[in-house]
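haha ok so turns out i had the wrong file open the whole time. this is the CORRECT one, sorry everyone. sequence first:
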Amino acid sequence: MNWADTPEQAAFREEVRAFVRDRFPRAYAPDPEAEQSLEPEDVWGYNWPVDRLCDDPARRDGARAWAAALAGRGWIAPHWPAEYGGAGLSVLEEFILQEEMMRARVPTVNGIGAFLLGPTLLEHGTDEQRAAHLPPIARGEVTWAQGFSEPGAGSDLASLRTRAVREGDEATGTYTVDGQKVWTSLGQYADWLFVLVRTDPGASPPHRGITFLLVDAASPGVTIRPITDLRGAAPFCEIFFEGVRVPAANRVGEENRGWYVAMTALSFERAGIGATVKYEQALSELVGYLRSDEGRGFLRDDTRAALRQEIARRHTEIRVQYNLARYTVSRQAAGAVPGYEASVNQLFGAELHQRLASTGASAFGRNAQLWQRRDAPLGAVFTHMSRDSVASTFLGGAAEIQRDVIATRGLNLPRSR
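then structure:
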């Protein structure tokens, strides 16, 4: 297919490039030691939800100034209607915006709130919920985290046990929530949580007894504990709910029908262009380094040909991932509802992440074990990538689950023999 920009799209791409060049705060520089997130579309050295609350005033002010600049154009949530703080951009324009920001290596703002919760509220929320929650997201004032996974209910999400009991009627009642969530990305920095809870313990099948709630993270009874990973960073947390009172007005969709609301949210996962650009840049830097005087010292005659072939494969796979992202967004632009394509992108990108990290390790040999960035070849980029990539095939949905979705929803294969 021909993915070339139309004249209008090319003009918008230039507009985005000029905006980033002119408006990105010069003092908001990458933090070379930042390891707070595992999301494949994060820009190295930046983590906006963390930066906006950090103790360094220059970094905190830079993060907030960048959010304000984007909000002024409606570009935090570019596809949303203007009445909620968006810019009303087309799906393809939003794609171009994200692509150019990644290529410029500047952070996006309000990821989970803008890209997952926002479209879900536009689809399933009430007018009151949209008016209360969407504008603060679009202004960069409020951040959200996703409370889905639990101990024993990760890939098998329908087996979740966090319980919510409603008291009172639909309009003025409240839910009392008790339970635990885990692996909540950047939950310790979030102002609000969107959470799946069980409201019908006897439902069969179990996913029919689940409800989708919006929970203020500052509510009494909410305890958030960061989880440290093998890198020494804390990109996620566990959350405990003990008698947390949530207004019934904070329920999205019908009671016991939250599973379907959640599937809508997950279908809005990004098309994958950010990860594509990130991998493309990493591979380009690897090739450039290996061609330099310093880098040529890592190329042994007995491994040179094999490494060249590996790099060629990674380059081809990155182009495949780019085309998958463009295909997904083109379907959305044509009015199709996102479906199994998100699983294709997630699975292919996750496994490519691991293969790319392995290629870097092959290039640097024992030096690929160096963790400290200073004085390490290429700043230990691929050492850090190898640690990040460990989680790729279960972050955002295990590879086995993604394959099942692709088989049953994409290829229409039977669920059992």
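The radius of gyration is 22 Å.
again sry for the mixup
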